[in-house]
Design goal:
This protein is of the alpha+beta class. It folds into two domains: about 40-85 and about 185-195, Ribosomal Protein S4 Delta 41, Chain A, domain 1, CATH 1.10.1050.10; about 95-175, Roll (Structural Genomics Hypothetical 15.5 Kd Protein In mrcA-pckA Intergenic Region, Chain A). The protein contains eight helices and five strands, in the order H-H-H-H-H-H-E-E-E-H-E-E-H. The chain has helices at about 1-10, 40-55, 60-70, 75-85, 90-95, 100-110, 145-150, 185-195; strands at about 115, 120, 130-135, 160-165, 170. Strands 2-1-3-5-4 form a five-stranded antiparallel beta sheet, covered by helices on one side. A hairpin with a 5-residue loop joins strand 4 (about 160-165) and strand 5 (about 170). Helix 3 crosses helix 4 (about 75-85), helix 4 (about 75-85) crosses helix 8 (about 185-195) and helix 5 crosses helix 6 (about 100-110). The longest helix is centred in the N-terminal third of the chain and has 16 residues, at about 40-55. The termini are far apart.
C-alpha cells in the first residue's frame, strides 16, 4: 500500500491497454492510406475512363455511343460494349491488322481498308452483320501488309468475325454477344455514371 501511495505521489501513471479501435490501422474504421473514401461518382468515373482507355476513344465519342445504347432495346451496358466492339478500328484490331487498337486505328485513318468495297477511313464507323472489311488492292502490295499477314493467327480472332484464308479481308458473321467480348469493365458502373449526371 505504501508503494502505491508513493507512486501516486510521484505522479506515475499505470500504462493503459490500447482500445481495440486505436490498435487498428487507420483508427476506428480500419482503413489505411489516410486518403478520403472514394465517392460513388469517383468509382463510376474511374470505370468509364478505364473503358475509354481500352478502346482509345475520346469522351464525346464514348458519350455518343452510350446515348445510342440507351435508346436501343436491351441492356444498355451490354449494348454499349457491343457498339465499341463494332467500331472499325476495333474490328481491324480483332482481325489482327494491328498489334494494338492504336496501330489498327492508324491503318484505318491512313486509308488502307474498305467496307463492302468502299473506302472508309473513319475509325468510329460502326459495322453491321454481313459487312466485309478488306484491304485495298494497292495496300496489299505494301511491305506493311506482308508483315501483318505473316503474323496473322498469333492472336485469337473472335467467333463473330470470319477472316479470309489469305488475311486480306474479314466478314462480320454476326454481332458480338456479351460472351464474345473479353473486355473487363463493369458496365453497370458506367451506366450509373451517365444516369446520375
Amino acid at each position: 500500500m505504501a508503494q502505491s501511495s508513493s507512486s501516486r505521489a510521484s505522479g506515475a501513471l499505470r500504462p493503459v491497454a490500447p482500445s481495440s479501435a486505436a490498435s487498428r490501422p487507420g483508427g476506428h474504421t480500419g482503413r489505411t492510406g489516410g486518403g478520403p473514401r472514394p465517392t460513388d461518382y469517383g468509382v463510376h468515373l474511374k470505370e468509364k475512363q478505364k473503358a475509354r482507355r481500352i478502346y482509345g476513344v475520346l469522351e464525346r465519342q464514348f458519350e455518343k455511343n452510350f446515348e445510342l445504347a440507351s435508346k436501343t432495346t436491351g441492356v444498355t451496358g451490354a449494348i454499349l460494349l457491343q457498339l465499341m466492339e463494332r467500331r472499325l478500328d476495333n474490328v481491324a484490331y480483332r482481325l489482327g491488322y494491328g498489334e494494338s487498337r492504336a496501330k489498327a486505328r492508324q491503318i484505318v485513318t491512313h486509308g488502307h481498308l474498305q467496307v463492302n468495297g468502299k473506302d472508309v477511313a473513319i475509325p468510329s464507323f460502326i459495322v453491321k452483320a454481313g459487312d466485309k472489311i478488306s484491304w485495298k488492292e494497292v495496300s496489299r502490295k505494301t511491305e506493311m501488309f506482308k508483315l501483318i499477314s505473316a503474323g496473322l493467327g498469333k492472336r485469337g480472332i473472335p467467333r463473330w468475325l470470319r477472316p479470309s484464308s489469305d488475311g486480306a479481308s474479314g466478314e462480320v458473321a454476326a454481332l458480338p454477344e456479351p460472351a464474345d467480348i473479353d473486355t473487363i469493365v463493369d458496365t453497370r458502373l458506367i451506366t450509373e455514371h451517365y444516369s446520375k449526371r
